[in-house]
């Protein structure tokens, strides 16, 4: 029984490791925005990273589709980076109801 549980657990490990296909996520706040790139300050507040944007970049506001115009300096952001280091998806929080 223990061997069966161990075997099952070992089968699940690759699914967790490769959940994003080896791609990287960047979390932080937007420090600067331009049409070609955004600068994201990491959650540690000490380091920043420049992330390139492309025509294929997908923008999300909460769970809804968004656009580049939804990005705001100071907003929290999660960026899913592609193999080329450019943004595949940019997620910002849902806008508060007015």
Structure description:
This protein is of the alpha+beta class and 98 residues long. Helices cover 16% and strands 40% of the residues. It contains one helix and seven strands.
Task: Annotate the secondary structure layout.
Layout lengths: L1 H16 L6 E10 L3 E6 L5 E5 L5 E4 L2 E2 L10 E6 L5 E6 L6
Parallel strand pairs: 4-7
Antiparallel strand pairs: 1-2, 1-6, 2-3, 4-5, 6-7
Give a short overview:
The protein is 16% helix and 40% strand. It is of the alpha+beta class and 98 residues long. A seven-stranded mixed beta sheet has the order 3-2-1-6-7-4-5, with no helix packed on it.
Largest sheet, order of strands side by side? 3-2-1-6-7-4-5
H/E series:
HEEEEEEE
State the distance separating the first and last CA atoms.
57 Å
Q: What structural category characterises the helix and strand content?
A: alpha+beta
Give a quick account of the main beta sheet: strands, pairing sense, barrel closure.
7 strands, mixed
* Principal-axes shape call: elongated
Q: What's the rounded overall pLDDT mean?
A: 84
Q: How many β strands by DSSP? A: 7
Identify low-pLDDT runs.
Answer: none
The Rg value, from CA coordinates, equals 17 Å
Count of helical stretches: 1
The proportion of strand residues reads: 35-45%
Helix content: 10-25%
């Amino acid at each position: 029984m223990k061997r069966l549980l161990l075997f099952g657990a070992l089968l699940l490990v690759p699914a967790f490791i490769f959940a994003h296909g080896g791609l990287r996520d960047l979390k932080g706040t937007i420090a600067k925005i331009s049409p070609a790139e955004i600068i994201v300050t990491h959650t540690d507040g000490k380091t920043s990273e420049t992330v390139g944007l492309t025509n294929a970049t997908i923008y999300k506001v909460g769970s809804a589709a968004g656009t580049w115009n939804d990005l705001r300096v100071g907003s929290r952001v999660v960026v899913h980076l592609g193999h080329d280091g450019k943004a595949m998806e940019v997620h910002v929080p849902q806008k508060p109801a007015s």
